[in-house]
Fold:
Amino acid sequence: MKLTLMFREYCGLCHDMRNQLQPYQAEFGFELEIVEIDDFPDLELKYNELVPVLLHGEHEICHWHLDEQALRDYLQAA
Structure:
């Protein structure tokens, strides 16, 4: 399974979410793709004010802050 984190290098919340995801990666073994949205105008337009955004495909798991319960529920159901 691959999750995607919509990210900005200068965004403190983005770094926090990336770091908070590490134990879940170890536990559930998912791949994490980091996408710098400022490199993609269409993604910047879509996710601008929401970053960080954690996705599985087009499904948004959470944004701004890691919702640990939503993530755990989603990963256990997958």
Q: What stands out?
A: The chain has a mean pLDDT of 96. The CA atoms of residues 54 and 62 lie 5 Å apart. Residues 2-77 form a domain with the Glutaredoxin fold (CATH 3.40.30.10). The chain is about 45% helix and 25% strand.
